[in-house]
Amino acid sequence: MALLRAVPLSPAQWAEGYALVEELSQRADLNHAPRLYYLPSPEPNAISLGRGKQSVIAITQGLLQLLDERELVGVLAHEISHFRANDIGLLNLAALLSQLTVLMAFFGLLLVVVSLPIYLISGQSPPLLLILLLVLAPYAVTLLTLALSRAREFDADLNAALLTGDPAGLASALDKLKQLHGSYWEQIFPGRTRSSPWLQSHPSTRERIARLLS
Questions:
Q1: Which residue, 82, 71, 23, is CA-closest to 49?
Q2: Buried b / exposed e across 62-87, counting CB within 10 Å, b at 16+?
Q3: Where in the cell does this protein reside (predicted)?
Q4: Choosing from 16, 22, 79, 153, which is the catalytic residue?
Q5: Which of 25, 120, 170, 194 could form a disulfide with 74 if both were Cys (CB 3.0 to 4.6 A apart)?
Q6: If you write DSSP's letter for every residue of 18-31 in order, what string do you get?
Q7: Phi, psi (degrees; rounded to nearest 5) at 2
Q8: Would you call 38 helix, strand, or coil by DSSP?
């Protein structure tokens, strides 16, 4: 959290926030309610880190200014749902496996390249299928990791709605974030369209809102 310049908040500094987190944590059957941190950033965002006694939710100044209490409850419930499902640990493991796959594929291709003179001298064909697998494996694992991340976001949304009993609150928060971020990127890259949904770590906000309100 120090790298993010996050400031720990005590219950005395934000009693309402801690009361909300405590109540939502009890509903989610968490043994330990996350601690709250404040990020002095104008970008509206909430970040979940750690697990168990070390679990933390960091909230930016921009998010506090953008959302009303009902919407903030939805966002907090979303983050707590990630802790409940151990999504942080799961996604960290997926990222580690992805990195290991990339590393193994690199050394595998390097070994094939070093062995090419042997294949040429012996008149044998290089293992084309193996080469193809080594080239495609990192891309396949990356796509699977992104798909897992999107699935966990959908589940966190739905579980947050169950915790609060108010899916419209989170949907409203997502809509505000969509309008703000959409306007921001359109100013920087006018005319640019969003990249393929397969390459996104989060599902589209429109689809998330539609699922919440369905």
A1: 82
A2: bbeebbeeebbbbbbbbbbbbbbeeb
A3: Cell membrane
A4: 79
A5: 170
A6: HHHHHHHHHHTT-S
A7: -65, -35
A8: strand
State CA 22 to chain mean position distance. 23
Q: Residue 161: is its pLDDT beyond 70?
A: yes
pLDDT score recorded for residue 3? 60
Regarding the domain delimited by 7-68+79-84, which CATH topology (the fold level of the hierarchy) does it fall under?
A: Zincin-like (3.30.2010)
Give the C-alpha separation, 31 to 191, whole Å.
48
Q: Assign 129 to helix, strand or coil.
A: helix
Contact 94, 42 (CB under 8 A): no
pLDDT of residue 5: 79
In the chain, % of residues over pLDDT 70 = 92
| Active-site annotation holds for 69 | no
Segments in 28-127 forming alpha helices (H): 61-66, 69-84, 87-122
